[in-house]
Design a protein that fits this description.
The complex is a heterodimer of chains A (about 220) and B (about 200). Chain A is of the alpha+beta class and about 220 residues long. Chain A has a five-stranded antiparallel β-sheet with strand order 1-2-3-4-5, sandwiched between helices. In chain A, helix 2 packs antiparallel against helix 3. Chain A is elongated, with a radius of gyration of 22 Å. The N and C termini of chain A lie far apart (about 60 Å). By secondary structure, chain B is mostly helical. Chain B contains nine helices and two strands, in the order H-H-H-H-H-H-H-H-E-E-H. Chain B has a two-stranded antiparallel ribbon with strand order 1-2. The longest helix of chain B is centred in the C-terminal third of the chain and has 31 residues. The relative contact order of chain B is 0.19. The chains are: A alpha+beta (about 220), B mainly alpha (about 200). Chains A and B meet through helix 1 of A and helix 5 of B.
Chain lengths: ~220, ~200
């Protein structure tokens, strides 16, 4: 077909108009289900890392900032009693970039369970941070960061690193620590018994930054 | 090539995508998603099916509107049509198959720049009828799906020791095959094998 300025402009206008209308329509139709599946995903993950609860933790969330990264704290209640906190925490120190975790804490700060929400670690190595790929994350269960140093053993902590994935293990521990600190800051008044440990746990974490620069183990 | 296609039956249009004009092993098109997504059989299959869907729909629409699009703006027009279908696929997947979306989500927008789709629009759909274009889309899409699933299966077997997620050895396989370099190795050897086998057919 002969190309003239008029028919080129007109054709492109009509095509983009029809296309954007169609995409807009599909967006409207799928908007609900997408939101629903996002909610289902969050509540599934919440149910996995928290003790039994009967409220809707995703409606009781608080967002705080810890060391420059956002941390979301969900509060789980049974009746009026707080049974635990789920903390969505992240770190940018992963081998493949950002790692997002959901960490379940009991009210006294004890870790219930950790689920990996998002990561881009190396398949077969760093991706063992996922609870379904290896037992790495299981070692945190039942530990209280007040007396469990969230550093890999190489850096003087208590965490058994994944073989050949020290950086991923460090980043994972860093994210858990960040989440714990954020929770302690937020609930500081309620949990006096361990709040003192927060600052002492924070310092070695900073030292490990320097150690990380020298070693690339993965 | 085009003269031959005109005489092809519907069945031939579908089967040619599998062997004679296999997009991965013969045309060597769409290498980016081929190498990037095939870390496991299921990822390859998912990417293939999503591509086939977009390819068939865009072929149909492009062959419908081919006569009203001025030649000089046909590429932008095709891209708009393809991009719209990709966005639709992405939204629908996100809404109704969140599990698959979690694995393939980042690769879906890549379908827009997959040269197979623009290639078929340009080489086939813009010159042929609606029905033939639809069958061409299905055929090439099937070929792409089979190749990606095959490549994914091989890489998963060697790299993770499993097929479609079912483990058949303890521990890990040869990790390299799940990583990027393994994609090139696996594709290279599959190409050799494919050419060897098809050479006999001729």
């Amino acid at each position: 077909m002969e190309s003239t300025l008029k028919n080129m402009v007109l054709t492109l206008f009509v095509i983009t108009l029809v296309a954007s209308t169609a995409v807009g329509f599909v967006y409207k139709v799928t908007e609900g289900p997408i939101a629903a599946s996002e909610v289902a995903k969050t509540s599934n993950a919440l149910a996995q890392v928290l003790p039994a609860f009967d409220n809707d933790p995703s409606s009781e969330k608080q967002e705080v900032e810890q060391d420059g990264l956002p941390v979301i704290v969900y509060t789980a209640k049974s009746g009026d009693q707080i049974v635990g906190y789920a903390v969505e925490t992240r770190t940018s120190k992963g081998f493949g970039g950002e790692i997002v975790l959901l960490v379940g804490f009991k009210p006294d700060g004890e870790i219930v369970k950790i689920e990996t929400l998002k990561h881009s670690e190396t398949p077969g190595l760093g991706d063992k941070i996922e609870s379904k790929k290896s037992d790495f994350s299981v070692q945190f269960c039942g530990k209280n960061p007040a007396d469990f140093k969230l550093l890999v053993k190489k850096d003087g902590g208590d965490v058994d690193a994944i073989t050949a994935s020290t950086i991923s293990s460090r980043a994972f521990s860093d994210a858990v620590l960040r989440g714990y600190n954020a929770l302690m800051t937020l609930t500081g008044g309620q949990i006096n018994s361990v709040s003192g440990a927060t600052s002492s746990a924070e310092n070695p974490a900073n030292e490990s930054d320097d150690a990380q620069k020298g070693e690339e183990n993965e | 090539m085009l003269r031959k296609e005109k005489k092809m039956s519907k069945l031939q249009l579908i089967t040619k995508g599998l062997i004679k004009e296999n997009p991965t092993f013969v045309l060597m098109l769409g290498m980016c998603p081929t190498l990037g997504t095939t870390t496991s059989a299921i990822n390859g299959l998912g990417m293939g099916v999503a591509t086939m869907f977009v390819l068939t729909l865009s072929n149909i629409v492009i062959s419908l509107v081919k006569n009203v699009i001025p030649g000089k703006v046909r590429i932008p027009a095709f891209i708009v049509i393809i991009a719209s279908f990709v966005t639709v696929v992405q939204l629908v997947m996100q809404a109704y198959t969140p599990g698959l979306y979690a694995t393939l989500g980042v690769f879906i927008p890549l379908i827009v720049v997959n040269c197979i789709i623009l290639g078929r629009a340009e080489a086939f759909a813009s010159k042929n009828g609606v029905l033939a274009s639809a069958f061409d889309g299905i055929g090439i899409g099937l070929g792409f799906t089979c190749s990606l699933t095959l490549l994914g299966t091989v890489r998963e077997m060697l790299g993770s020791g499993s097929i479609f997620g079912a483990k058949f050895i303890d521990g890990d396989g040869i990790l390299l095959f799940v990583l990027a370099p393994g994609a090139f190795f696996a594709l290279g050897y599959l190409l050799v094998l494919f050419n060897k086998l098809t050479a006999k057919l001729k």
